[in-house]
Known about the structure:
binds pyridoxal-5'-phosphate, disordered C terminus, alpha/beta, 4-stranded parallel β-sheet
Amino acid sequence: MSYIKGLVCKECGDDYPKEPLHVCEFCFGPLEVSYNYDEISKSLNRESIEKRDHNLWRYAELLPIDEPPLIGKEVGFTPLIKADNIADALGLKELYVKNDSVCFPTLSFKDRVVSVALSKAKEFRFNTVACASTGNLANAVSSLSTSGNLESFIFIPYDLEMPKIVGSTVYGTNLIGINGSYDDVNRLCSEIAGKFGWGFVNINLRPYYAEGSKSLGFEIMEQLGWRVPQHIVVPMASGSLLTKIWKSIKEFEKLGLVDISETKIHGAQATGCSPISTAVKNDWEIFKPQKANTIAKSLAIGTPADGFYAMSVIKESGGWSDDATDEEIVDGIKLLAETEGIFTETAGGVTIAVAKKLIDEGYIPRNESVVVCITGNGLKTQDAVENSVSKPEIIDPNLDEFEELYKTIKSNDQGGIHDAVSKNTHTA
Ligand SMILES: *Cc1c(COP(=O)(O)O)cnc(C)c1O
Ligand SMILES: [Zn+2]
């Protein structure tokens, strides 16, 4: 039983068959998967979902596969954390962290989209898959293509963070660094995709790939007890995740799984690459492409493919958008770590920093419920915070030395251990 009707052009509404296609032949608009919701409503309800395994396939009818999933069977269902410490710090009443920094297997939300794209690639009988990546996608495609027995070619800007490079090559993929920005990589990949018969997860498989992001939204609503929060703050690179979280809410509403809501979707970018947030803040009809210069490399897309649609969702939902400087990103990473014990990458720092601004500016009222989407893991971008966190104190294996150090730590009234330790370093 297939629940997928086919592909449909987002611009002119023309119908296309379920094939590895991504642009409309007539108007060049992007194609999107459409479903038969009447059929879906017959098998999908709260009770049926709750009986299923804890991974993203518990919402399989709303994902674009026709066969049981073949790749990434255990991916998804990450924790939703009621984050009272950081809520206090930000002056909010009800704040949750959706923690995809611990997504299986490569510690970012890209594991979701890639599971769906590669399962679809298997249905389409591709033997080789490929992608253009800002880092996390490279990790997810490398890992999941390896476990799924597919060959892979991965294209990245040459200057990505080392953990994101090693976190791809370790699986034995073909990783190709391009002398240029992500936008250059993406342009080259479009040419390669036209020439080689590969399944490019974010080019000819993009309509299927992008649907995987809806699972983040489905989980938020189920984990809140079949409820939609009043605000969701989402980091934006291409803008796809933000539009799919919106689609996930509209689908759950259509199927009666949640009440009709008035959720506001807010988009977060880095100031050094902020085409979407700049357009929203200036009330422009279209965004202006930018040259990226930010530590949030995973979000550094100067010409975002779904930027226009992300702007529309933000507007339609009544949300807003803002951006964070490199310094604010580091502060955001540290705030989440020091309050909730969650170490996120630079993209998460962007999300926290922008959430803070939206609260201060009044776009998020302090008594309303908020979910922030933490999409990647801090172990992959340690360079960003290396010089902004304390260094360990080194002592000899000797009780007297520790007692001396302990006294210094304790005699420091205001500071925690870190302040005391650094003070001791200076007087030693
Ligand atoms: C790719 C990525 C995003 C944003 O994805 P888009 O759907 O392209 O907007 C957010 N966070 C992290 C960590 C990512 O790797
Ligand atoms: Zn069209």
